[in-house]
Amino acid sequence: MKLTGRKAVRIISYLTAIVLVLGIWAGVSTFNLTVAQREIKRSNERALTQLGTYLDDISLNLQKCTYSRSKDMLSDVSTKLWRSSASAKESLSEITDGNTEVSGVYKFLSQVGEYTLSLNERLANGEKLTEDEKKNLNALLKYSKELSQGVNELISQEEDGLLDFEEIKSTLRDDGRAAVYLGKELNDANQSLNDYPTLIYDGPFSDHINNKKSALTENLEKVTQAQAQRKAEAFIGKGEGALQPLSKTENNLSTFNFYNGDCTVSVTQKGGIVCYMLTSYYASEIRLSQKQAIERATEFLNSKGYKKIKESYYSTTDGICTINFAYYENGITYYTDLIKVSVALDDGQVTAFDATGYLMNHTQRKIPGNIKYSQEKARQLLKKELKVISSKAVFIPTEWETEVYAYEYHCKAPDGNEILVYIDPVTGNETDILILLYSDGGVLTK
Fold first, then answer.
1. Domain edges within the chain
2. What's the rounded Cα separation, in Å, for the pair 17 and 32?
3. pTM summary value
């Protein structure tokens, strides 16, 4: 069959169009595949990072279990362990594409949540932990630390491009072979993820905290922006016109904000109290000690009218030492009334000030009238293996946006860690345990 010129052109046009469409389709498919692969990789990276975080939480709370002898504390910690282990299993499942039955890590995560819940139930029924159960907790702690360290190393290697997720899956399965198996003890834990009651978490990061009003400024008179600006300029020791209006916030601690080329200052709309000050100062050669920085920060706060304060913990980063101060009166430390001051270790300049915690929480408190235990008597309630270094009376925050009066015992544990144990003087129960972290940069808690 002979093609006319017009037919030939038409066929060539059709073929060209088909080739073009196929090319576009192939390009779009390749692009979509690339996007999908990128999303999968991001999802895996996020899941791996979350797994590392949950494993760190598990190790921390298992460690607290070994320090405590209180059934109420174990109840709180076991609930946190259950939550962390359940979340970790979800992250692990995402990384391993749901093939969790081959991973001993998954087995461990099931055990650590369910086993501690079973111990909690026994304590609630008036029983005591046996020596074998204490050994089991220590075994779980040992393995959780090893696993946590291993996963954090995987995260670092993946971030450096030294591992892909097929290698990570294989490593997790291999690491799981060394998991702790508790045999009969685990069989006694009949709680399951399906029938455990829903946990209502009403902690400090819940939405309700945004509705909290400042205890200190709520009933004070409003100031104008011009008045707030003069207060901000006086706070940094500058004359009128040294700062310019920046913005205005309207929330639970509404403020006027000002700035110049060197710093930003925020002043509450009610009462005209400086909420925070932040400079752009960078420290050079370190010449001052952290003790000198604390002295400089204390002098600064005293000059601003904060005289009933006491330093607690500090940390140092890039030559800037940040000290946490708490309100202190009549031998009681109020940890919720927190003020942070940053001092440059080259010339002692105050580079930052934050009184948000103080402004939100400072108010009149009442010590409970039905105290049953003195500091000395409550000291006898501590686990006998703990060596007490010091003790004091404090008010500490709770997860429910409240405060409790407690005795703080700074102790040394048998494993060498220093910890803070808080005991309720009314009930004698442990209300919290914090582990102190010492480094060249300072002292923090977790």
1. 48-187, 214-361, 375-445
2. 22
3. 0.58
